[in-house]
Amino acid sequence: MQITLLAFDWFFLIEKLVLIIGIISVSLVIAMYETWAERKVAAFIQDRIGPNRAGPLGLFQPLADGMKLFMKEEIIPNTSNRMLFILGPCLAMLTAMMTSAVIPWGGTLDFFGRAVPLQITDINIGILYVFGVVSMGVYGIMIGGWASNNKFSLLAALRGASQVISYELPMGLSLIALLLVTGSLKMSAIVGQQIDSVYNVFWQPLGFFIFLVCAFAECNRTPFDLPEAENELNFGYHQEYSSMKLGFYLFAEYINMFISSVIMATLFFGGYDIPFVSDAKLAESIGQNWTVLLQGLCLFAKTAGFIFLFMWVRWTIPRFRYDQLMHLCWKRLIPLALANMIITAAVVLYFKK
User: Which residues span the membrane (predicted)?
Assistant: First the structure.
């Protein structure tokens, strides 16, 4: 069987490679400057100034921190499992980056007569893909904690794994209710339905609240940062790590926070839809490509609001005890999510009649 290379669409491959590199670069830059923004937000809440030495307003501080992590001595404990010790942060970073593959970042660009959608892949099971990749992220925590051969790291990894697995249940149940409303698992279809109708947060306010709480737990953010409880576990599951291996864990957390914010904006707040503006009329007046650019900026503005919420909560709400963490999940969120799913199913069935 002879395979002809002429039939292959090389432009399609180039488009996807450029899009992948662009999304990865933007995610890394945003994760880097989330550290600067978090310090500024913390300083504002605590009536301080925050970073102000490295560049104007301290904007070069993330670059200095990144350079410091690159230049630090890399230490691997003698009693650790070397291969798994290296695999842990790599897996955490990989799963954090893979979740962005199914997110629609904007409309369709018109590039020399070619329609170029700002989405790496538009699969029919987009939400399930996100859940599958996020579920793999717990292995980065578990492998890193176990391979360190440190009892505090192992205890923190066990906490992190049980927390992530537990809070995936109410998050999944909240998305089942959303699926009953939208009838599709495709991220682009969910955004399209919200553009044509109203945002899903108005149909599913309780589902959005449950998803938001679970997103805090999945990202190990305060008040759910039990795997990194410094006063109990020294430094959490990555306390034996240094240099860029530690940087990978820290970057993965901020990338997860960024991607979680994008997903919440996509599923419940219309994604890249510009509120109170007709995208079709806007494209007629300023052009399709400029409209897509404004859509992308709108999505990032919605995402920035959620990122600020993550930071605001961190510096205003104290950390839960571990028993309170599990009590909230199993005795509060899961029953609420089940009730929300049953009520949504009944309402959808009634209106379909």
Answer: 12-33, 84-106, 126-148, 169-191, 197-217, 248-272, 292-313, 333-351
Q: Are 131 and 96 in contact (CB under 8 A)?
A: no
In the prediction, which pLDDT does 7 show?
Answer: 59
Unique residue bearing structure tokens 């002809």: 4
User: Per-residue pLDDT for 1 more than 50?
Assistant: no
Are 30 and 258 a contacting pair, CB within 8 Å?
A: yes
Q: Tens digit of pLDDT for each residue in 163-220?
A: 888 999 999 999 999 999 988 889 999 999 998 888 999 999 999 999 999 999 988 8
The answer to whether 220 touches 228, Cβ cutoff 8 Å, is: yes
Q: What stretches of the chain adopt beta strand conformation (E)?
A: 108-111, 114-117
Residue 115 parent element (H or E): strand 114-117
List the end-to-end C-alpha distance of the chain, in Å, as a whole number.
Answer: 54
SS3 184: coil
| Number of residues that this document lists for the chain | 353
Q: Which of 263, 260, 235 is nearest to 250 (CA)?
A: 235
10 has pLDDT over 80: no
Give the best-scoring range by mean pLDDT among 8-22, 74-88, 250-264: 250-264
Cα atoms in the Cβ-side hemisphere of radius 13 Å centred on 211: 29
The CA–CA distances, whole Å, from 40 to 61, 205, 277 equal 11, 30, 33
A 10 A CB-CB count for 181 gives 17
Nearest CA to 245 among 62, 72, 63?
A: 72
Sign of the Cα pseudo-torsion (27, 125, 199, 173, in order)? negative
Does residue 3 have a pLDDT over 60? no
